[in-house]
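Page 37, top half.
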Amino acid sequence: MLTVDRIENEIVIVETETGYMKIPLSEFDGNVREGDIIVNINGRYKADKEMTEKRRKEISEKLSKLWER
């Protein structure tokens, strides 16, 4: 899974399962922001909005359960 960690100038820092990689913002289609899950399609990157929203919901639910204890 590729997750946007941060954006520095025109470079997107992406967290992978084994570390980090830098991808020029020019290689992305559409908007991308911190926390987005991204996919590579034909050499171009884009945010997978559906997967990103699913992941954010899962994290939010886990945090809510932690605070309930």
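Page 37, bottom half:
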Amino acid sequence: MNWMILPFKRFADFKGRSRRMEFWMFSLLNVIVWIVLGGMKMASGDTMAQLTAASATSPLSVYGVMFSGTTGILLALWSLAAFIPGIAVTVRRLHDRDMSGWWYLGFVIGSFIPLLNILISIGFLVLMFLEGTKGPNRFGPDPKDPTSSDVFA
């Protein structure tokens, strides 16, 4: 559980490195929260028919259906609360691979390119699964090195 909430403790820390465990446990926490809140939303009577019946002329009307009601407000609050820590932990994860955090912006922009977006998303996932560089790099000490006292300082 500590790995899941560590990105909230390091809320806007874009410096340093994060292990794969921290990144993937935070991702798992987000999936669990979205499944639970989405299940609560469906249990409260909202259906996929309401989402598909949203106005075709206004693509943003889907958000009105999705974020309406008490559960929708909880979904919106969770999304806002996890937005900055999610970016920060991703940037720190890229730092662990000895890559600049600006690569994340490149992946986000690249994901909007039709046909290439699938390849870019797969490449990003593979990159997040790869092990970090061993020993210290330009972004800080190795977070897996237990002898380093300034890993989480």
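Margin note: DSSP finds seven helices and no strands in the chain.
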